[in-house]
Amino acid sequence: MTIHTDIRDGETRPLHQDKGAAPEVLYVPRYTGVQRVNHWITAILFTLLTLSGLAMFSPYLFSLTGLFGGGQATRAIHPWFGVALAVSFVFLFVRFWKLNIPNKDDVEWSKKIGDVVTNREDRLPELGKYNAGQKMVFWGQTGLIAVMLVSGLMIWNTYFGGLTTIETQRWALLAHSLAAVVAIAIIVVHIYAGIWVRGTGRAMVRGTVTGGWAYRHHRKWFRQIAGGLARRGPVDKRGS
């Protein structure tokens, strides 16, 4: 049984229901294959940057350089991971920035953060594709990656060492380190939220979420892509 829709971030793709034991579960397309690949490339690069950066951040973590062939190799490859991350993130930014523009629903959602933590979705406003927390992650990482890129280039002595003074490089190193610590903290929260909200991981693995998940967490977005299906179709609203 196939139910067609014309809207999915400007793309056409069918909604589909799997036949089987009741209740039938509606699967809603949330991310394309290209978007998921872009996300995972960015995630892998961020992980490599974190490990190589921590290896140089403290002597207690120097053993991590073994993952990259030693201290000199780690020092040489870390900046290239950063450049690759910046390029990959630019593609993510271009794809998703419009969907992450804050609106009045985000203000109302933020005021009811207690209900968010206690899973009282019935008290929350209907949301589009992303909530205020997800938007803060997006814009926070956008700014932090920009800071890390610029400061990283300023302390990349192999190519740009002669363009800045020692004092400037020291301030750039401080900014780079602080931005990295905050970015890592944000990603830890991002990963935890993805695990905490059951069914979220499926979106970035298979590209779809259940109708119940979409109805429970992003009802306005669900209505946009499914039209009146949420009101008249056999939708599993348990959020599983």
Provide keyphrases for this structure.
240 residues, mainly alpha, four-stranded antiparallel beta sheet, 11 helices, 4 strands, 5% strand, disordered C terminus
Helix-strand blueprint:
Blueprint: E1 2-3, E2 15-17, E3 26-29, H1 33-57, H2 71-96, H3 104-111, H4 113-117, H5 132-154, H6 157-160, H7 166-196, H8 201-205, E4 208-210, H9 211-217, H10 219-226, H11 229-232
Antiparallel strand pairs: 1-2, 2-3, 3-4
Task: Please provide a written account of the structure.
There is one protein chain. With 240 residues, this protein is mostly helical. The protein contains 11 helices and 4 strands. It starts with a strand and ends in an 8-residue tail after the last helix.
The Cα radius of gyration reads 21 Å
Q: Which strands sit side by side, in order, in the main sheet?
A: 1-2-3-4
Number of separate helices: 11
Order of helices and strands: EEEHHHHHHHHEHHH
Outline the low-pLDDT stretches.
1-13, 228-240
- % residues in beta strands: 5-15%
Q: Please tally the β strands and state the result.
A: 4
Query: Which structural class should the secondary elements be placed in?
Result: mainly alpha
Q: Calculate the terminal CA-CA distance, rounded to whole Å.
A: 21 Å
Major sheet summary line: 4 strands, antiparallel
Helix-residue proportion: 55-70%
Mean pLDDT: 85
Write down the overall geometry.
elongated
Organism: Methylobacterium persicinum
Domain Cytochrome b561 bacterial/Ni-hydrogenase: 30-206
Main location: membrane
Membrane topology: Multi-pass membrane protein
